[in-house]
Write a structure and sequence with these properties.
The chain is of the alpha+beta class. The protein has two domains: 1-44; 47-259, no CATH class. It is 46% helix and 35% strand. It is built from five helices and eight strands; from the N terminus they run ααββαβββββαβα. An eight-stranded mixed beta sheet has the order 1-2-8-7-6-5-4-3. Helix 2 (49-84) packs across helix 3 (102-123).
Length: 261
Protein backbone atom coordinates (compact mmCIF):
# COMPACT_ATOMS: atom_id res chain seq x y z
CA UNK A 1 0.00 0.00 0.00
CA UNK A 2 1.34 3.38 -0.97
CA UNK A 3 1.60 6.06 1.73
CA UNK A 4 1.63 9.70 0.80
CA UNK A 5 4.63 11.84 1.65
CA UNK A 6 2.48 13.98 3.97
CA UNK A 7 1.47 10.95 6.03
CA UNK A 8 5.05 9.67 6.10
CA UNK A 9 6.22 13.09 7.36
CA UNK A 10 3.59 13.07 10.14
CA UNK A 11 4.66 9.59 11.19
CA UNK A 12 8.32 10.61 11.38
CA UNK A 13 7.42 13.63 13.55
CA UNK A 14 5.30 11.47 15.88
CA UNK A 15 8.06 8.90 16.29
CA UNK A 16 10.66 11.64 16.86
CA UNK A 17 8.49 13.39 19.47
CA UNK A 18 7.81 10.12 21.29
CA UNK A 19 11.53 9.30 21.32
CA UNK A 20 12.38 12.73 22.77
CA UNK A 21 9.76 12.32 25.53
CA UNK A 22 11.13 8.87 26.42
CA UNK A 23 14.69 10.24 26.56
CA UNK A 24 13.59 13.17 28.76
CA UNK A 25 11.77 10.83 31.15
CA UNK A 26 14.82 8.57 31.30
CA UNK A 27 17.01 11.59 32.13
CA UNK A 28 14.66 12.65 34.94
CA UNK A 29 14.61 9.11 36.38
CA UNK A 30 18.40 8.89 36.29
CA UNK A 31 18.75 12.33 37.94
CA UNK A 32 16.32 11.46 40.73
CA UNK A 33 18.05 8.12 41.25
CA UNK A 34 21.47 9.81 41.45
CA UNK A 35 20.21 12.38 43.99
CA UNK A 36 18.54 9.66 46.06
CA UNK A 37 21.74 7.64 46.09
CA UNK A 38 23.76 10.65 47.23
CA UNK A 39 21.25 11.40 50.01
CA UNK A 40 21.21 7.77 51.11
CA UNK A 41 24.99 7.60 51.09
CA UNK A 42 25.27 10.71 53.31
CA UNK A 43 22.33 9.92 55.60
CA UNK A 44 24.58 8.33 58.21
CA UNK A 45 26.66 11.54 58.33
CA UNK A 46 23.66 13.60 59.48
CA UNK A 47 21.66 11.11 61.55
CA UNK A 48 20.80 12.65 64.91
CA UNK A 49 22.59 15.95 64.21
CA UNK A 50 19.50 17.99 63.32
CA UNK A 51 17.64 16.80 66.43
CA UNK A 52 20.56 17.90 68.60
CA UNK A 53 20.72 21.25 66.80
CA UNK A 54 17.02 21.84 67.53
CA UNK A 55 17.69 20.97 71.18
CA UNK A 56 20.51 23.54 71.23
CA UNK A 57 18.16 26.25 69.98
CA UNK A 58 15.51 25.21 72.51
CA UNK A 59 17.95 25.44 75.38
CA UNK A 60 19.10 28.93 74.40
CA UNK A 61 15.45 29.96 74.01
CA UNK A 62 14.68 28.61 77.50
CA UNK A 63 17.53 30.64 79.03
CA UNK A 64 16.43 33.80 77.21
CA UNK A 65 12.82 33.34 78.29
CA UNK A 66 13.88 32.83 81.89
CA UNK A 67 15.76 36.12 81.79
CA UNK A 68 12.70 37.86 80.36
CA UNK A 69 10.28 36.37 82.92
CA UNK A 70 12.44 37.74 85.73
CA UNK A 71 12.12 41.25 84.25
CA UNK A 72 8.60 41.12 82.81
CA UNK A 73 6.85 43.12 85.54
CA UNK A 74 9.38 45.94 85.42
CA UNK A 75 9.31 46.06 81.59
CA UNK A 76 5.50 46.23 81.53
CA UNK A 77 5.46 49.02 84.11
CA UNK A 78 8.01 51.07 82.16
CA UNK A 79 6.10 50.57 78.91
CA UNK A 80 2.86 51.75 80.54
CA UNK A 81 4.60 54.80 82.02
CA UNK A 82 5.99 55.71 78.59
CA UNK A 83 2.57 55.30 76.99
CA UNK A 84 0.96 57.61 79.55
CA UNK A 85 3.39 60.35 78.53
CA UNK A 86 2.13 60.18 74.93
CA UNK A 87 -0.85 61.99 73.47
CA UNK A 88 -4.02 60.59 71.88
CA UNK A 89 -4.57 57.66 74.22
CA UNK A 90 -8.02 56.11 73.91
CA UNK A 91 -9.78 53.39 75.90
CA UNK A 92 -12.61 51.04 75.07
CA UNK A 93 -14.98 49.29 77.49
CA UNK A 94 -13.95 45.73 78.40
CA UNK A 95 -15.87 43.50 80.84
CA UNK A 96 -15.74 45.48 84.07
CA UNK A 97 -12.92 47.75 83.08
CA UNK A 98 -11.02 49.27 80.18
CA UNK A 99 -8.74 48.23 77.34
CA UNK A 100 -6.65 50.30 74.98
CA UNK A 101 -8.22 50.85 71.58
CA UNK A 102 -6.63 49.28 68.50
CA UNK A 103 -4.29 52.16 67.61
CA UNK A 104 -3.14 52.69 71.20
CA UNK A 105 -2.66 48.92 71.69
CA UNK A 106 -0.32 48.84 68.69
CA UNK A 107 1.71 51.74 70.12
CA UNK A 108 1.87 50.00 73.49
CA UNK A 109 3.13 46.82 71.81
CA UNK A 110 5.89 48.74 70.01
CA UNK A 111 6.94 50.46 73.24
CA UNK A 112 6.90 47.18 75.17
CA UNK A 113 9.01 45.34 72.56
CA UNK A 114 11.53 48.21 72.45
CA UNK A 115 11.84 48.16 76.25
CA UNK A 116 12.09 44.35 76.38
CA UNK A 117 14.69 44.10 73.60
CA UNK A 118 16.83 46.78 75.22
CA UNK A 119 16.52 45.08 78.60
CA UNK A 120 17.48 41.65 77.25
CA UNK A 121 20.36 43.00 75.18
CA UNK A 122 21.81 44.60 78.31
CA UNK A 123 21.77 41.26 80.13
CA UNK A 124 22.83 38.97 77.27
CA UNK A 125 26.39 38.85 78.55
CA UNK A 126 25.15 37.11 81.71
CA UNK A 127 23.70 34.23 79.64
CA UNK A 128 26.01 33.88 76.62
CA UNK A 129 29.58 34.74 75.71
CA UNK A 130 30.20 37.73 73.45
CA UNK A 131 31.20 36.69 69.93
CA UNK A 132 31.89 39.72 67.70
CA UNK A 133 28.47 41.43 67.32
CA UNK A 134 26.61 38.30 68.48
CA UNK A 135 26.33 36.11 71.54
CA UNK A 136 27.29 32.47 71.61
CA UNK A 137 27.17 29.35 73.73
CA UNK A 138 29.67 26.60 72.86
CA UNK A 139 28.76 23.15 74.13
CA UNK A 140 29.47 19.48 73.58
CA UNK A 141 28.00 16.06 74.14
CA UNK A 142 29.71 12.73 74.68
CA UNK A 143 27.49 9.65 74.51
CA UNK A 144 28.45 6.07 75.38
CA UNK A 145 26.09 3.12 74.89
CA UNK A 146 27.02 -0.37 76.11
CA UNK A 147 25.51 -3.32 74.26
CA UNK A 148 26.01 -7.06 74.59
CA UNK A 149 28.32 -7.10 71.60
CA UNK A 150 30.22 -3.83 71.80
CA UNK A 151 30.37 -0.28 73.15
CA UNK A 152 29.14 2.54 70.91
CA UNK A 153 30.47 6.03 71.59
CA UNK A 154 29.84 9.37 69.88
CA UNK A 155 31.22 12.82 70.54
CA UNK A 156 29.61 16.06 69.37
CA UNK A 157 30.66 19.70 69.42
CA UNK A 158 28.24 22.56 68.81
CA UNK A 159 27.87 26.35 68.92
CA UNK A 160 24.53 28.09 69.48
CA UNK A 161 24.57 31.71 68.35
CA UNK A 162 22.04 34.43 69.22
CA UNK A 163 21.67 37.70 67.34
CA UNK A 164 19.37 40.55 68.42
CA UNK A 165 17.55 42.42 65.64
CA UNK A 166 15.16 45.34 66.07
CA UNK A 167 12.12 43.39 67.28
CA UNK A 168 13.23 39.74 67.41
CA UNK A 169 16.14 37.40 67.94
CA UNK A 170 17.77 35.17 65.33
CA UNK A 171 19.20 31.93 66.65
CA UNK A 172 21.07 29.03 65.12
CA UNK A 173 22.93 25.95 66.25
CA UNK A 174 25.81 24.47 64.24
CA UNK A 175 26.74 20.94 65.32
CA UNK A 176 29.31 18.38 64.15
CA UNK A 177 30.14 14.80 65.11
CA UNK A 178 33.74 13.70 65.60
CA UNK A 179 34.84 11.13 63.06
CA UNK A 180 37.97 9.79 64.69
CA UNK A 181 40.12 12.80 65.56
CA UNK A 182 38.41 15.18 63.14
CA UNK A 183 35.04 16.90 63.03
CA UNK A 184 32.64 15.71 60.34
CA UNK A 185 29.96 17.53 58.33
CA UNK A 186 28.05 20.49 59.75
CA UNK A 187 24.33 20.33 60.49
CA UNK A 188 22.63 23.71 60.99
CA UNK A 189 19.18 24.63 62.29
CA UNK A 190 18.02 28.27 62.34
CA UNK A 191 15.04 29.77 64.14
CA UNK A 192 13.52 33.14 64.99
CA UNK A 193 12.35 34.26 68.43
CA UNK A 194 9.48 36.71 68.22
CA UNK A 195 7.11 38.51 70.58
CA UNK A 196 3.57 37.20 70.78
CA UNK A 197 0.46 38.20 72.72
CA UNK A 198 -0.70 35.57 75.20
CA UNK A 199 -3.09 37.23 77.64
CA UNK A 200 -4.10 40.31 79.62
CA UNK A 201 -2.66 41.90 82.74
CA UNK A 202 -4.72 43.96 85.20
CA UNK A 203 -3.61 47.46 86.17
CA UNK A 204 -5.46 49.58 88.70
CA UNK A 205 -6.11 53.16 87.59
CA UNK A 206 -6.53 55.12 90.81
CA UNK A 207 -8.40 58.39 91.08
CA UNK A 208 -5.23 60.47 90.72
CA UNK A 209 -4.14 58.63 87.55
CA UNK A 210 -7.64 58.96 86.05
CA UNK A 211 -7.59 62.70 86.77
CA UNK A 212 -4.14 63.05 85.15
CA UNK A 213 -5.30 61.12 82.07
CA UNK A 214 -8.48 63.19 81.74
CA UNK A 215 -6.47 66.39 82.03
CA UNK A 216 -4.18 65.15 79.23
CA UNK A 217 -7.18 64.64 76.93
CA UNK A 218 -7.42 60.85 77.16
CA UNK A 219 -10.67 59.53 75.70
CA UNK A 220 -12.76 57.35 78.05
CA UNK A 221 -15.77 55.35 76.78
CA UNK A 222 -17.75 56.60 79.82
CA UNK A 223 -17.40 59.24 82.53
CA UNK A 224 -15.24 57.77 85.33
CA UNK A 225 -16.76 57.82 88.80
CA UNK A 226 -15.30 60.71 90.76
CA UNK A 227 -12.84 59.42 93.32
CA UNK A 228 -13.19 55.80 92.15
CA UNK A 229 -10.76 53.30 90.64
CA UNK A 230 -10.85 51.52 87.29
CA UNK A 231 -9.29 48.29 86.08
CA UNK A 232 -7.17 48.52 82.94
CA UNK A 233 -6.50 45.30 81.00
CA UNK A 234 -3.15 45.59 79.24
CA UNK A 235 -1.91 43.10 76.65
CA UNK A 236 0.79 40.74 77.89
CA UNK A 237 3.57 39.52 75.62
CA UNK A 238 6.03 36.65 75.75
CA UNK A 239 8.77 35.15 73.62
CA UNK A 240 7.98 32.40 71.11
CA UNK A 241 10.33 30.44 68.84
CA UNK A 242 9.22 29.94 65.25
CA UNK A 243 10.54 29.08 61.77
CA UNK A 244 12.83 26.20 62.75
CA UNK A 245 14.63 25.35 59.49
CA UNK A 246 17.42 23.05 58.38
CA UNK A 247 19.91 25.19 56.48
CA UNK A 248 22.76 24.34 54.14
CA UNK A 249 26.11 25.65 55.31
CA UNK A 250 26.60 28.01 52.33
CA UNK A 251 23.14 29.57 52.71
CA UNK A 252 23.67 29.94 56.44
CA UNK A 253 26.93 31.83 55.97
CA UNK A 254 25.31 34.23 53.48
CA UNK A 255 22.39 34.88 55.84
CA UNK A 256 24.74 35.84 58.63
CA UNK A 257 25.92 38.78 56.53
CA UNK A 258 22.36 39.69 55.57
CA UNK A 259 21.34 39.91 59.22
CA UNK A 260 24.14 42.36 59.88
CA UNK A 261 25.09 40.69 63.15
Amino acid sequence: MLVSKAHRGSAYITVFAATMIILMLATVVLSVTAVSRRITARYSDYIGLYDLAVAGNEQAFFLLRQAFNARNDDITSRAWQRLKDEEHISFIYHVAGLRLDVATSERFRNIFVAEAMGDLRAGMGNIFSRHFFMYQRVWGLDAVIDTDERTISDSYRAATTLCAAADRFHIDTVIQRYEGEYLGVRAIVESSIIWTNYGLREFILDAYTIYRLESAGVVFPFIPISGGNLILFLDEFTLAMVESLRIQAEIHDRRRGAWGC
